[in-house]
Records
---
Amino acid sequence: MQHARQLRPLGVVAADQAIANRSRGLQSRLYAQFFLQIATEWQCQQADCDLIGRTISNIKYLELNFIDVEDRHTQKNSLASMLEAWHVDRLEAGNRIFCVSGMDTHAGTQTKVSRITSAPPFFHVRFPRFGEAITIPVDLPEYLDNSPYADAASLPSDQGTPPKLIMEPIYRLSAVNIYYSHGIGPDGQSRGHYVLYTVQDGVWICLDDSCGKQYATAEHPQVAFNNGGVAYFAVYERIRDKTALPFEKTGTHSTGHLLRKGRVDPGAKLVEPLWERPKTGPSFSCHLCNNSFPDDASLANHKPECKLVCNECKLTFTDKKQFEAHIAQCKPPPPETETERWQREERIKIEAKLRQEMEKEYSQKLADAKEKMRREMMGENRTGDAEAVARLRSALEAERERNVTLIGLLQGQVDMLRARNDDIDNQVMHM
């Protein structure tokens, strides 16, 4: 092993290893489709030693250990958390990795760090199913971004930013093998059944030889998760020319449908992903109430009507700073005295009586106008005189104009009375 300053660049070592494998005849079409190249490093924690050990290995699948074999409900054992635990593997207390110098007196380390240096088109992950781990559920996302464990993963030998090895990091789940546990047999061995789900032409297909069918059926693996099945292995297929996860309709990146027990079955047919951020219009916000509007015209229509109201004194403001300054010093009005209560009740009685009289007067005038119109129409029918019809029409139109004028005058009086009442209220409140 070499001193930290003497380690060759990771990209060079990874490329040399790949060339050496080809020269030994290890390369094949199957190898190129599934084999990963992994770099693992560990650094001695001795104060006067910075030696780093490094290994480069080629594996056909990534086996991930469960984080908590006793946890079956809180989703600690998700694929994302298990990949993170694989990236930074911390040994249990009492265990250590010896320093590459071979000196037992050195502290060594309890941590080894791994990263993917070459990823194949098909990313194969497997979960150990034995002992207590036989039925532990694992959450599987539809889309996987492995850049946190590849080009963005830092190793002890990195001097600053981790080296980029030009890998396409986005994958989509294309196959999952489901294990159904049938308990322990008479011989003490676990009994179970395996079912394979795979994607064909954009549709999830279930291959199960235990149901008596001799043909595949269209079915999403969510059905198996809901029926108590657990993932034994999963295969993710690379999506070419993509460097980021697809988008939700809200504009945020998404890992798609999450396979977890209890989720709704989305159906066998795959949903087409959104690779471009959905276009959403700019948000226009009111500086007073902070409400958002889809366009500038809607905001312009809202502004004249927007007012801030003090809950204590009911005063209104169109300036936010003035409103905030008022709120800081506004005090609730003093309790109403007996005299103020009597004055308020009298104002209400007077206003109600005046309104009743005006309505009665208006109703009487309207009834008189209708009666006059009826009599004139009866006179028109008796005489049949064209001049009488013209006079009646003129009289009706004049009467209508007078009624409109009367209504306006009455409404003006009501508005004046209401304005006067508001002035009285303000005067009483500030006395």
---
Amino acid sequence: MKTFTQKHGFEKRSYTIHQEEGVVDVHHKDLKKQQKFQIELLDIGNKIQYEQDNTLPGKITLVIFIAIALSCTIYYFYAPPDDKGSMVVGGIVFTALALFGYFKPHTDDLIIAGGNKTIRLFRKQPNQKIVLDFANSLIASANEKRKEIAINFTLEKYEFEANLKWLLANKIIDQEEYESLLQDYEINRIIMRPGN
């Protein structure tokens, strides 16, 4: 059992791998909702993708809103008496917009895709290397479960070969392991043949 927890702002994501049961417990929590569910390891893909918002326009807008809010506050003390109300309203509005821009979560995720279910991890929480290591560990666990199910020496030869070709095509095994498993299958067939 391996657990990985991430926090980013007001959002928390937690993943626990149960290799024996073949599931991952997922727990997502933010200000609006809380989700708990399980994903089968077989439903997890083996492709890593990245998704990130373009934050530069948001940062520029945030700086402009802060500058306007500060200007309204400073001008409040130097403005004629009839303009003070508009400066207070402007200061409050632009401060609220700046706070909204600051606290609005931006997408910067590492995504494990290619399966029936998608896993989203914060790309830089705690740092990118640790997140990538966990993602690779999760993919390796899912691939081990796939191998465990697909490599069955009691199958007919064409079914066994089809499973191995699928594993090879999806880069779960390499060519050397493919050939080794075919040899093991033939040896197992000779040993299990009636009359031996």
---
Amino acid sequence: MKTFSLARGWQIFIVVTCAVLALGALVGLVICTKAAISNPADTGNWTFIACIFLGLFLLVYAIVEALKGKLVVHKDKFEFISAFGTRELLFIHVKGFKTDDKYLRIHPLADKGKNINISTYFGNIAELETWMSTHFQDIDIAEKAEEQERLLVNVDYGQTTAERELALVAAKRTARIINIIGVVLAVSLFIAGDYLHYTWIATAIFTVVSVLVLRYYKGLIRLDENKNSPYPSIFFGFFGSITGLLLKSLLTFHILDHSNVWAPVGLLATALLVLLVLKNKEFEQFNKQTIFMIVFCAVISFAYGYGVVTGFNCVYDSTPPSKYTSDVLEKRISGRKSTAYYLTLSPWGPVKESDEVDVSGDTYAETKIGDHVNIYLFKGKMEIPWYVVENQ
């Protein structure tokens, strides 16, 4: 018999952290209870009290789980003990296991219960993984081998096994090139400077070309990145190029009026979605994964449409701007992982109320409350007005 539980260091950390948070929650509970008693009509206090009780329950659960949770490996079964009870799974009822960054997941046969999920923060988790690999099948490896076998007998990719293997090698090479180019183009959008009009159109065209490559290979190259699949994926190149277009547009251009944006965005997004999904072998099987991927394609197609339309409107706009002046009313910085800078400006030109706009770090640092800033309003290549904020 072998027992695996949360590493001692993590147990101490979780218990101490949750205890401190629980103490703070109790103090907050006392304060809110007094406020609620003195003013019963204020429902906000009672709502906050309910939230504190929920938080306390979760903190107590975390402490109990950290101290009690463990996996016991017997001669013929697993015994998983948690805060909610004990579950057992006989070895003869185990289908196999999967691993990811957070858990080692023991999968039972279809009608033998739910997965047993073991946190990678358990002590000696590497020992458990080694033991599992010698006694049960790694489902990820088995599924990939099965998919590889189906691929190599599919006559759509060649008449002989040798031809299909060569086609797979070519597809992997093509996917690698697509991924590299897509990421490079996405990065180039932010460092292009005066050459942005070249990199923008190149990135927009590349995205469509990558979808055409996807269709050309008739399912041998996939959009979805799946570690169990032998099929090469262009996810990083495709997603990277669209993300670059969208972020560059959102971070660089201030659209004043979106009235003329949505029609071309919808048209472009629909066209890309149809090109992605229609008669694509990746979406032939109707299951949860397929539904998720179609929804993802719809969202990413909309992002592409918005990025391309607003970018084209602003990057290729050669009309002379109208100049306005505005006062800086407030300043603020937000963000944790990334920092965003905002100025609140007084009414200017067609903007009749004070409004907050995001600016670059340099503009923010050089501007003080009460300063005047120049605002340049452009007509837009597609009649979508946009503006730029600059220091005087």
---
Amino acid sequence: AGELPELAVQWKAEEAPEPQLLVLNEPLAADLGLDPAWLRSRDGLGLLVGALIPSDATPVAQAYAGHQFGGFQPRL
């Protein structure tokens, strides 16, 4: 997002009420340098659902354009 700012906008997701972890890809967590046990904790789950934002991170949403309802929309 930092390299192509026109493709993303800063965004804060709505909080997920009572999130639950159903499945955890432990090999992927290890590849990303994340402790699977921590991801299962309350803070880890907060990270996964976007409620806990690391201090060096900026949440963004992908911005894109296209046709919707028969007309071009510059930002969807």
